[in-house]
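Check the record.
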Amino acid sequence: MANSKSGLFSRWQQRLTKVKEEEQAQQIAEQEAQEQQKQQLAQAEAESVETEDAEAQQQQELPDPESIEEGGSFADFLKEGVDPTKKKQALRALWSQPQYNITDGMAEYALDYSNQPKLTAQAAKEVAKQVFRHLDAKLEEERKQQEAEQLRLAQQQQAEGQNDPAADAEPPAIEPSDSEEQGDTRQS
């Protein structure tokens, strides 16, 4: 039994030392990873400082957009990293240059419609006639239908009067309707 205990303890001791060695190796790997991350952060900061310095130097080198002559280059203002307000000023200066500030004369909104000439009575009458021509045609058609209906009624009454010997009276007179009177005044 002594042998089995010493074997058990020795195996336990070996396992314990193995676990401690693994923990130490893991800690060493973590420390190395942290150091590597610190180096990468330091390198990234150095690069960002360099790019910021380059951008600041580039922005200081940019000329005043208003001072660029006609046909000059605005390409430096359109690069990445340029201050948006400087870029906006440059584009405003570019589009205000004379070669881009020409109207073609075909813009309908450029005309002045506020001072229109007044129509004469004859011109106004002609415009009204053209606008309401469909309405006049409709009224004329209704008038013709009414006349045809009245004529048909008169013929019917006359035919009934021939069949009836007691009705030797004259057919009733057809009076012009309001639409007929209006149609007569429009034609004159």
About this structure: The mean pLDDT is 80. The two ends are 143 Å apart (CA to CA). The chain has two domains: 2-100, 121-165+177-187.
